[in-house]
Amino acid sequence: MTPTAESQRKPNPRGAGARLRDEIVEAATRLVENRADPSGITLRGVAREAGITAPSIYGHFGNLDAVMDAVVDECFGRLSAGLEDTLPLYDDPVRRLRALCRSYVSFGVGNPRLYRLLFSRDRPVEAGPVAPKPVETMPGARAFGLLVQAIDACVAAGRSISIDPQGDATLLWTALHGYVSLLHSVPDFPWPVSENLLDQCAGRLACITP
């Protein structure tokens, strides 16, 4: 977006508010992708990238945190869509589970700044223990649900002895996230071939039978 785009932009027609909201989120997402440190992103910067005035944002978002929450939702949507694209490629449930693992890591490695944003945003410090929320209400629930469903499918096909697919999906997600994070922070470690490592993670943590 050029510096003069704001002054050149024509007002959105009536009823185009949803489109403007999407443009704000897309602009903020581009800023995250192009900055090593997203903490420097401001509402004014988002507005400039979107080619609008800063006050225009307040019709859709109350503050920068709300904009960034929407960016997180957008990024989880991209991750989920990538995972879903792998599903029709495999009939065998074990191969499908392995493909999901590879797709997850591929997204994290290929989009390091977006991936980092998903799990590194500061959250308010609560007083005392934090009560768990239902998984389906949390960001990333769609992507996590695909892992649960994939393990369920392996159980149904007699290919897994898991007695707790959601619990085992949690273990597998923990391993995948840890692997992506380590690839970012320790890239020169002598890692095994990625596909072999991921296949072993899926096999062991999803209780796949020989």
What does this structure look like?
The chain is elongated. Helix 4 packs antiparallel against helix 5, helix 5 (93-110) runs antiparallel to helix 7 (141-156) and helix 8 runs antiparallel to helix 9 (194-205). The protein is an all-alpha fold and 210 residues long. The longest helix has 23 residues, at 64-86. The protein has 9 helices and no strands. It folds into 2 domains: 14-62, Arc Repressor Mutant, subunit A (Orthogonal Bundle), CATH 1.10.10; 72-120 and 135-210, Orthogonal Bundle (Tetracycline Repressor, domain 2). The chain has helices at 5-8, 17-34, 43-50, 64-86, 93-110, 112-120, 141-156, 165-185, 194-205.
Detail the topology: elements first, then pairings:
Layout: H1 5-8, H2 17-34, H3 43-50, H4 64-86, H5 93-110, H6 112-120, H7 141-156, H8 165-185, H9 194-205
Helix pairs in contact: 2-3, 2-4, 2-6, 4-5, 5-6, 5-7, 5-8, 5-9, 7-8, 8-9
The Cα radius of gyration reads 20 Å
State the separation between the terminal residues, measured CA to CA.
Answer: 54 Å
Fraction of helical residues = 55-70%
What is the CATH superfamily classification of the largest domain? Tetracycline Repressor, domain 2
User: Shape, please?
Assistant: elongated
Q: Secondary-structure element sequence?
A: HHHHHHHHH
At the third CATH level, what is the topology name of the largest domain? Tetracycline Repressor, domain 2
Strand content is under 5%
* CATH class annotation of the largest domain: Mainly Alpha
